[in-house]
UniProtKB/TrEMBL annotation:
<feature type="region of interest" description="Disordered">
    <location>
        <begin position="290"/>
        <end position="334"/>
    </location>
</feature>
<dbReference type="InterPro" id="IPR015889">
    <property type="entry name" value="Intradiol_dOase_core"/>
</dbReference>
<feature type="domain" description="Intradiol ring-cleavage dioxygenases">
    <location>
        <begin position="123"/>
        <end position="197"/>
    </location>
</feature>
<protein>
    <submittedName>
        <fullName>3,4-dioxygenase subunit beta</fullName>
    </submittedName>
</protein>
<feature type="region of interest" description="Disordered">
    <location>
        <begin position="64"/>
        <end position="101"/>
    </location>
</feature>
<feature type="compositionally biased region" description="Low complexity">
    <location>
        <begin position="64"/>
        <end position="79"/>
    </location>
</feature>
<dbReference type="InterPro" id="IPR000627">
    <property type="entry name" value="Intradiol_dOase_C"/>
</dbReference>
<feature type="compositionally biased region" description="Gly residues">
    <location>
        <begin position="300"/>
        <end position="323"/>
    </location>
</feature>
<feature type="compositionally biased region" description="Low complexity">
    <location>
        <begin position="290"/>
        <end position="299"/>
    </location>
</feature>
<dbReference type="Pfam" id="PF00775">
    <property type="entry name" value="Dioxygenase_C"/>
</dbReference>
Amino acid sequence: MHLGTSRDAAVRTYEGRVLPRQGEDVDDQGLAFDITTMLNRRRVLSVLGLGAAGLALAACGEGDTAGSSTSSSTTSSSSALSEIPDETAGPYPGDGSNGVNVLTQSGVVRSDITSSFGSSTTTAAGIPMTLTLSIVDMVEDDSPMEGAAVYVWHCDRDGNYSLYSNGITDENYLRGVQSADADGKVTFTSIFPACYSGRWPHIHFEVYPSLDDITDATNAIATSQVALPEEVCDTVYATTGYEQSITNLAGVTLASDNVFSDDSGASQLATVTGDTTSGYQVSLTVGVDTSTTPTAGAAPAGGGGGGGGTGGTPPSGAPGGMPTGMPADRPTSA
């Protein structure tokens, strides 16, 4: 049995997927993991023309041999659904908990967050990215949370955050809200974010019961982050404009990141397909346990950059050029 590893050797993978049960053999990863493995093999056998008989033989021989397949343009997270961890919203949320509240502004409900809205129409440069989050209610048998509002934000190609970082405090690009459809899905058009010093590449999001609740950050029922796969980041950061991200990514791993380090982002690592020419499709299923009280962003102890500086390097003084005097009572990990 061939098991792969990510940059951190402690994270065990199989066929490009992070094993949900890191301490167990691949044969003991649970029903959901096994079903995904079988479906992947069915697709391969269909291409080879082996049909159902070949699938049965492959299943019988699973205990003897198993190949691993990793694509440079596709990386999957574990298929086993678990509650999305509560993570820090960081110092740049823009939700009113740390200064400006973009969620009270007309125009924030939108699917394309590449450009600013309101008094500016500045567009953030970078490799195109489409983000799809599927929000499910774990209390209601993983049913889609139709009508839930999802607020998404992330840094730009230079590692800066609109509304906070030096030179772009008047911009609000790479921020927006969508209401989940009947399948619990929200989709955003954006650009691939940078890797800034001290943090693994990520996307922030908050889930609210409905659009009526978004103007008050305390109404959020989940606050978390999407982790982006290493091999896709390597490919994107090799393109023009992302040069500083190469150095920053080399200095951090999922296991050392101060947000994802507790489990190397096992339930937050996105599935990504695409390429640098046509753009990338990033997706993640977000399990929300509506019976629990959200912690609204308790960050693990440890290092981590504030982000928002030139080329992704945390600036001195107020984080990301944030005006002095702004409240800083939230965790300072971006």
